[in-house]
DNA sequence: ATTCCTGCAAAATCTTTGCAGCTAG
DNA sequence: CTAGCTGCAAAGATTTTGCAGGAAT
């Protein structure tokens, strides 16, 4: 995926705002400064290839920013999370991974062998939420739905 | 907590094997010794009132076992988990709570105000799992479904 | 110029582990 | 007896925080 930022001369106008653009814009709108480190972190978050962990993000940026610290990654994720622009996936083993591409709740299918994450389409989920709300009298604000299993590749590769 | 099991002939029999009995039995069967601390921990896990955390369990037992350590609680939960007799609920804030009453995956509805946890009935879940399996070609082994919201009591109490 | 951000190190959590003595079976 | 368990303290692992210098606007 290619992300081009055309600076303010203004002639070029990309019509489809990427997730990257949206997050940067929202940071600006909320008075956050756009530092090089932050920019780089947002770039990774916005793509969310493989749903990276904090460590993944840190490792990807160590070359470009040799002095960068983990704390900076953590702090930026907290900031972006507070704007609702990244979804935190907490795993049973205690690790966290991040999705800034689809920052709203959605189901995941996770391979416990290769850690691949797939986003399935499940249209019955909205209905289920209503069912839960009416059964429990809760006002549902959020949800989390993850399936754990083994992907077809890993199934084929096991002897 | 009473457990009624309806046998196939339609005769209702009250099983006197409680979750507590089952877990203790399974521990014995697997060569684990039944120490007083373990017994007490299983008793709490088996009831799972309010889905206790490790700290909750520890606090509940400090009176009875003043010298007991957190490590003992952790180690016992690991043991019981390895037997599949307790479900670990990992929360977005990083905390864990435990359910030995229904140790198999099941949906939860959690009040983000008072932390109450309700188990709703959702019969469409099995079907959803099949849908996911066929769509993604994963072999699904496990799942996690949690709804977060505000319960009716908390909604009434807020001005 | 101001305000926010970063890097570093220390601190704060939460969980696991090594070990010596103890105990259930 | 003896394999397994406990208490304690130390070690790990992950995330947060205080501070002083530095950078974005």
Topology:
The structure is a homodimer of 159-residue chains.
Chain A: H1 19-29, H2 36-47, H3 54-62, H4 70-82, E1 87-90, E2 96-99, E3 108-111, E4 117-118, H5 124-136, E5 139-150, H6 152-157
Parallel strand pairs in A: 3-5
Antiparallel strand pairs in A: 1-2, 3-4
Helix pairs in contact in A: 1-2, 2-4, 3-4
Chain A binds a DNA duplex (25 and 25 nucleotides) through α2 and α4.
Largest sheet of chain A: 3 strands, mixed
How large is the count of helical segments of chain A? 6
The top level CATH class name of the largest domain in chain A: Mainly Alpha
Largest interface: A-B, 40 and 40 residues
Give the overall average pLDDT of chain A.
Answer: 90
Which structural class matches the secondary elements of chain A?
A: alpha+beta
Count the beta strands of chain A.
5
At CATH level 2, the architecture of the largest domain in chain A is: Orthogonal Bundle
Q: What gap, in angstroms, lies between the N and C termini of chain A?
A: 35 Å
Number of domains of chain A: 2
What oligomeric state do these chains adopt? Answer: homodimer
Please trace the helix and strand order of chain A, writing H or E for each element: HHHHEEEEHEH
